[in-house]
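Journal club prep — side note

Before the paper discussion, L.F. wants everyone to see what a predicted structure for a comparable chain looks like in token form. Sequence:
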Amino acid sequence: MTTEVRVPTLGESVTEATVATWFKKPGDPVAADEMLCELETDKVTVEVPAPAAGTMGDLIAAEGDTVGVNALLATINEGASAAAPAADEPAGATAKPAASGGGSVDVMVPTLGESVTEATVSTWFKKAGDSVTQDEMLCELETDKVSVEVPAPASGTLTEILAGEGDTVQAGGKLAVMSAGEGAPAASAPAADAPAPVSSGGKDTEDAPSAKKAMAEAGISRDAVTGTGRDGRVMKEDVAKAAAAGSAAAPAPAPAAQAPRAPVSADDASREERVKMTRLRQTIARRLKESQNTAAMLTTYNEVDMTEVMALRNEYKTEFEKKHGVKLGFMSFFTKACCHALKEVPEVNAEIDGTDVVYKNFVHMGIAAGTPTGLVVPVIRDADQMSFAAIEKAIAEKGARARDGKLSMAEMQGGTFTISNGGVYGSLMSSPILNPPQSGILGMHKIQQRPMVVNGEIVARPMMYLALSYDHRIVDGKGAVTFLVRVKDALEDPRRLLMDL
């Protein structure tokens, strides 16, 4: 039987890659999930594992070839020879739960998400020697945006924890070792792990091409870098860490690399608490600063009279909830109004790619949500095609999952425009920061009764300030003001949304 090896999904908007390195040649025995080759895209390196055990067949795409998503890379001939890798590579065999009791089972880092290569071990819920049942949560990992729970792959005893809390682990790396089955001897775990270095040293291990290039550019020798990839391979991230460690050790440049902290008195220092930033908070800080450094960001303001929206909501909210099973909030009105305005001013829904402007003929609306660990932006796809009820259901569902840390990476990617509602926290006015590579973000604020002149008379009206931050490289002032006015018009007279005016 012949199994095809094809190009995996490369990432959002990435359609092709280059074959960087083949680690197997025709006729070589391969084990299931063993790495066959490495592909390089514009931004990331993608490893291609063997979909089945067997013997390597024909290599369809050679090193240096450009291949598209799902293109045929090679073939694997399944058969009796598939048993050879299992006998030669005992370390790989431990990655699977043992069929009978008493076997050693590795607890591995699960798939973390598109383009995410590492995570931090935030919490262990079990300690070495504890009994565990299959699918019981062992630990929690923290990536740049989401928390990932790691369940037990089998029932048994947790014999050894290899990555402690605070340690950084690579995707596919080993977290711990279990002995499967009741009463499994703990001593079996070290015996299973012992052959691992042999498998690393016995293979023709190739470092990642991107890592080789980075080492050459940085002038770092291979011996100075510790590989964290499969079989001890050096990855690009390993080179960056080695370079950072080397610069930190240098006596003069290190202090100049960052501004020193202001002096603190001994009395104040004794009352301070130092807490390491979470990976999520570090990512938020980095992305916001990158946004300021990259985009020519400008903010324009307007205000909207919420009288008509509030009256419409109060009139139909009971009937709406009874029919659709979800409350009618203000976010669906703002989402609809923004989708309406984006059709008229498409550059606010576009992005810059090099010297090109990419216009989106759809609206994937990002709805910023505050969580206990930081701000996340789940994306409602094709919001321009959705009804009020569908939008409210999507916002409620994604908001709840965001607060519980259950959002996947895919649910926070691909947004074309973002709405941020600071009004829920009492903000009267603010300038939201762009969520790159988007070119626009709408800031909502609190509704406050203010005196307004209506038909020559001063009356109290529920008013809200609106702020549109936009990338002036692609959006002109006229377009930004027009967009905000269209949102204002739609909210002050919601019938315009039904009439498409």
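L.F.'s comment for the group: The longest strand covers residues 457-471. Keep this in mind when we get to the figures.
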